[in-house]
Write a structure and sequence with these properties.
The complex is a heterodimer of chains A (143) and B (399). Chain A has a single domain, classed as Rossmann fold (3-Layer(aba) Sandwich). Chain A is 47% helix and 17% strand. Chain A has 5 helices and 5 strands, in the order βαβαβαβαβα. The longest helix of chain A has 24 residues. With 399 residues, chain B is α/β, with parallel strands linked by helices. Chain B has 3 domains: 104 residues, Response regulator (Rossmann fold, 3-Layer(aba) Sandwich); 90 residues; 146 residues, 2-Layer Sandwich (Heat Shock Protein 90). Chain B has a 5-stranded parallel beta sheet with strand order 2-1-3-4-5, sandwiched between helices. In chain B, strands 7-9-10-12-11 form a 5-stranded mixed beta sheet, covered by helices on one side. Chain B is elongated and about 120 Å long. The model of chain B has no long low-confidence stretch (mean pLDDT 85). Classes of the chains: A alpha/beta (143), B alpha/beta (399).
Chain lengths: 143, 399
């Protein structure tokens, strides 16, 4: 099953650069600037990994995180943020984010490593579910 | 009324020796010092040299009369403030008016009544002394106001810098991300292009292409360095803002000093000899350990920079003071801080380091942290000999 990524940040320059960087490396990745749109897309299509900014207008990244985990706990979420506060970090951790990266993103290789760890985790769960024979043909567990 | 403590000095200017004898006698009896001049010219000269507290001046003198003397004394800045009592003949009211208009402070009629003269002299001297005191006080006051205003502006700037920086830090991080993020992609793209070019013989012949291939990595590095420096300043600003209220806990300051020495060991080991005299059994202070370590590291690194590459000494001491505080002294034998600069060292962004080294935030952050701990930090320095920082911190214990 192909892994799909979605990047959410209200700044188009940032979603563009992350999509460009990882698409060039061969990842299946799209960028979205409106968190509500992101949520809709996540619920309609299959995305395995979400990379999201924290401070965004309309809906902040921590709220997005909460709703994604509510919808499907198996989706891996990586937070990126320029506004570093203890409160934001702890909330992200408690709500199940995989990790947090600080802007400016000086080291995209480490972000790629984190993505790799997310993929490993997803594949691990998929293997477990496959073993239990709970997977249908679409690759999604029965509702 | 009492005369001021220092013995007042009077200059008698009169061509008549008899008047001199009489007046000197009166004045000396009252323990007033006397200088004597027998002409206007002589009087002006002595007044300029000795700056008496008062001049007793005769109007009627040959060559230069009293009015001329008054004019000349008042015209010279050195003697202008000396009160003049002139001696006038009883039958000349117009003389008296003229003298007063020219700037004399008072007059006595001849023949001189001793009691009256002494009373007027004492009054004038007292007035003069009071005027001097007032002038000094005003100057002092103005200096104090100037200094206080500077302090307030400084504090205000720090405060607004703190408020600005939380928002600005966040704002700057985003566009910096455009730079650093895209740069990393650019490196990837470039690697692919260079790879492609290397398989094309024409590329090897083209001088300009070869030049681009050679220069490209360096340019990327430089853009990267610029973006990193921006990030560092932003990070420094964020420490400055310290929006998250730091928690304080009872802390042993000697342990923090040791921690800072560990952190700076690599920087200090070559040229800095460290001498510690840390008092055992120091009372604990309420502190944010991380922040104080940052302060100590900052001071140690600054000392290392000041010492440079000629072996020097850094003395660190800690002791309890008699008024319930802890005193820390960091004293180095480095190049020192020049007097015209020492007032600014705690200003944000002030640095004497060459362009690109250091953000100029270290000491201003240090100052902020110490203030945050309700402590004091002072600096003394002698060019060519060294610099000493003295920090005191409260222990919360009354002595």
């Amino acid at each position: 099953m192909k892994i799909r990524l979605i990047v959410v940040d209200d700044e188009k320059d940032i979603t563009d650069l992350l999509v460009r960087h990882f698409a060039f490396k061969g990842y299946d990745i799209v960028g979205v600037n409106d968190p509500r749109q992101a949520l809709a897309m996540i619920e309609e299509e299959n995305f395995n990994i979400v990379i999201s900014d924290i401070v965004m207008p309309i809906m902040d990244g921590l709220e997005l995180l909460r709703r994604i985990k509510n919808y499907n706990g198996g989706i891996q979420v990586i937070m990126i943020t320029g506004y570093v506060t203890m409160h934001n970090i702890l909330t992200a951790m408690r709500r199940g984010a995989e990790t947090v990266f600080f802007k400016p993103l000086n080291n995209l290789d480490r972000l790629e490593e984190a993505i790799g760890q997310c993929i490993s985790r997803i594949e691990m769960w998929q293997n477990i579910l496959r073993e239990l024979g709970a997977l249908g043909k679409t690759g999604q567990p029965y509702a | 009324m009492n005369l001021p403590e220092t013995r007042p000095l009077t200059l008698i200017v009169d061509d008549d020796p008899l008047t001199h004898k009489m007046l000197s006698y009166m004045l000396k009896k009252d323990r007033i010092g006397v200088l004597e001049a027998f002409s206007g010219e002589e009087g002006i000269q002595i007044a300029k040299d000795k700056l008496p507290d008062l001049v007793l001046l005769d109007v009627m003198m040959p060559e230069m009369d009293g009015f001329e003397v008054i004019k000349r004394l008042k015209a010279d800045r050195k003697t202008a403030e000396i009160p003049i009592i002139f001696l006038s003949a009883k039958s000349s009211p117009s003389d008296r008016v003229k003298g007063l208009e020219l700037g004399a402070s008072d007059f006595v009629s001849k023949p001189v009544d001793q009691g009256e003269l002494l009373a007027r002299i004492r009054t004038q001297i007292k007035l003069k002394r009071q005027e001097e005191a007032l002038r000094e006080y005003t100057q002092n006051l103005e200096k104090m106001v100037e200094s206080r205003t500077r302090q307030l502006i400084h504090a205000d700037r720090l405060a607004s810098l703190g408020t600005l920086s939380a928002g600005i830090a966040h704002e700057i991080n985003n566009p910096t991300t455009f730079i650093t993020g895209n740069l990393q992609t650019l490196e990837q793209f470039w690697a692919k292009i260079v790879d492609y070019l290397s398989s094309h013989p024409q590329a090897a012949q083209d001088v300009k292409i070869q030049y681009i291939i050679k220069e490209f990595p360096g340019m990327i590095r430089s853009i990267r360095a610029g973006a990193d420096r921006i990030s560092n300043i932003v990070a420094g600003l964020k420490t400055f803002a310290r929006k998250d209220s730091p928690r304080k806990a009872p802390t042993q300051v000697n342990e923090l000093i040791e921690e800072a020495l560990n952190l700076t060991h690599n920087r200090l080991k070559y040229y800095v000899n460290v001498e510690k005299s840390l008092a055992p059994d120091l009372p604990a202070i309420r502190a944010n350990g991380q922040h104080l370590v940052q302060v100590f590291v900052n001071l140690m690194l600054n000392s290392a920079d000041a010492i440079g590459d000629k072996t020097g000494l850094l003395k660190i001491s800690s002791e309890a003071t008699s008024d319930g505080r802890v005193r820390l002294i960091f004293s180095d034998s480095g190049e020192g801080i020049p007097p015209d600069v020492i007032d600014k060292i705690f200003d944000p962004f002030f640095t004497t380091k060459p362009l690109g080294q250091g953000t100029g935030l270290g000491l201003s952050i240090t100052h902020g942290i110490i203030r945050d701990h309700e402590g004091t930090i002072d600096v003394e320095s002698t060019r060519g000999q060294g610099t000493t920082f003295t920090i005191t911190l409260p222990t919360g214990k009354r002595p």
